[in-house]
Automatic annotation (TrEMBL):
The keyword Membrane applies. Belongs to the UPF0702 family. Residues 3-78 form the YetF-like N-terminal transmembrane domain. This is Membrane protein. Keywords: Cell membrane, Membrane, Transmembrane, Transmembrane helix. Signal peptide: none annotated. The chain crosses the membrane at residues 6-25, 32-52, 58-78. It comes from the Bacteria.
Length: 224
């Protein structure tokens, strides 16, 4: 009887969450804000605890899911009806690259480091910060990217030009620290890096937020 009860409660909880997701809309899945994340955790906890608590019946599971779903629905309605509440409940997008320059203070506010930013950019098929004119950290944790105008020109295939070898940009300095592995893999040393930094009026790697190197090009440096 106990196993049958767990089976019934599991199916009931699954159906409730499935219906609730359909009612609340696809944005609950594709655009997870901080509030949506908390809502998902609580809903899962409600159903999970109900499965293993013998004193909790199906009616109580349904009631708890209904109340929490109603709270989520009302919150979504408030954010749509009153624009001022959106920043509080959903947060605001922040510009992290402006006119090709990293906005360090905005990155700190968003708890975003260089490695995380590079990962997000690669998901947008951007492998070098030099290619980015603007980047915005969205409320769901993704990044929207506007490439520089030179990167938006027709491809070599469009112009019937001969393909050339593509070099991958290597991070040599991240958050003021030298990435030694990348430096060695490029066949470079600390002396070369210091000279390149001095050419751009930097006395030390500690003064640099980010620096990358691509064969055949000058060292690209971003200050704090």
């Amino acid at each position: 009887m106990e196993y049958a009860q767990i089976l019934i409660e599991t199916i009931t909880g699954f159906l409730c969450l499935f219906v609730l997701t359909k009612v609340l809309g696809k944005t609950q899945i594709t655009q997870i804000t901080a509030f949506d994340f908390i809502a998902a955790l609580v809903l899962g906890e409600l159903v999970g605890n109900a499965l293993y608590d013998k004193e909790v019946g199906i009616s109580q599971v349904l009631y708890a899911v209904f109340l929490w779903g109603l709270l989520i629905y009302v919150t979504e309605w408030v954010t749509q009806k009153f624009k001022g509440s959106r920043a509080l409940l959903e947060g605001r997008p922040s510009v992290i690259i402006y006119k090709g320059k990293l906005q360090y203070q905005n990155m700190k506010k968003g708890r975003l480091d260089i490695n995380q930013l590079q990962h997000l950019l690669r998901s947008k098929e951007v492998f070098s910060l030099q290619d980015v004119e603007y980047a915005v950290l969205e409320t769901d944790g993704t990044v929207s990217v506007l490439r520089k105008s030179l990167e938006q020109t027709p491809s070599r295939g469009d112009l019937n030009l001969t393909p050339q070898t593509v070099e991958l940009a290597r991070t040599l300095i991240s958050d003021g620290e030298i990435v030694w592995d990348n430096l060695k893999e490029e066949g470079l040393d600390e002396g070369w890096l210091e000279k390149e930094l001095q050419k751009q009026q930097f006395t030390s790697a500690k003064d640099v937020l980010y620096a990358e190197y691509k064969k055949g090009e000058a060292l690209h440096v971003q200050p704090y």
